UniProtKB/TrEMBL annotation:
Residues 113-123 have a biased composition (Basic and acidic residues). InterPro entries: EIF1AD (IPR039294), NA-bd_OB-fold (IPR012340), RNA-binding_domain_S1_IF1 (IPR006196), TIF_eIF-1A (IPR001253). This is Probable RNA-binding protein EIF1AD. GO terms for molecular function: RNA binding; translation initiation factor activity. Keywords: Initiation factor, Protein biosynthesis, RNA-binding. Pfam families: eIF-1a. Belongs to the EIF1AD family. Residues 111-154 are annotated as: Disordered. GO terms for cellular component: nucleus. Residues 53-92 form the S1-like domain. PROSITE patterns: S1_IF1_TYPE.
Length: 154
């Protein structure tokens, strides 16, 4: 099979509306970073488990690109010590919506939780701590009326 034909089949598989739910062995994970050599570090949906490495199968290599923050469906493998799973499917926002409707999406990855944590982080930070931008012009308006009134009172 030529490279173009293989790419066409992989793209067709990704674009298909296959919203089948994950099996018992499969997990939804979030990509944290790319470690090179088709290995990616993922964050598991369980807070108890630590981050681990997953491998990208040959059919996705050089055909599909994933970046930090993307969600993938992984299936565990037994033969590896460092690499603990293999990517089965790359999830799109449509998958996320369907999985949330079916109550399969992990609570750790919900947008509402991410939004709430962003609000808490923003409320804790003070805008007064930021230095002023030296590239902006400082326009000060002196209130002449208030200074004149204080002079007249004396």
């Amino acid at each position: 099979m030529s490279r173009v034909t293989r790419l066409k089949h992989v793209q067709r598989e990704l674009d298909s509306d296959d919203f089948s739910l994950p099996t018992e062995k499969q997990q939804i994970c979030r990509i944290i970073s790319s470690k090179g050599n088709n290995l990616h570090e993922v964050e598991s949906p369980n807070e108890i488990e630590e981050n681990y490495l997953v491998s990208m199968p040959p059919k996705f290599r050089k055909n599909v690109w994933i970046k930090r923050g993307d969600f993938v469906l992984v299936e565990p493998i037994e033969e590896g010590d460092k690499v603990k799973a293999e990517i089965c499917r790359i999830l799109t926002p449509e998958h996320q919506k369907e999985f949330e409707k079916a109550f399969v999406w992990p609570k750790r990855f919900t947008k509402k939780r991410d939004h709430e944590s962003d609000i808490k982080e923003n409320s804790d930070s003070d805008d007064d701590d930021l230095p002023q931008n030296p590239n902006r012009r400082q326009n000060y308006r002196a209130d002449t009326s208030s200074s004149e009134e204080s002079d007249q009172e004396d």
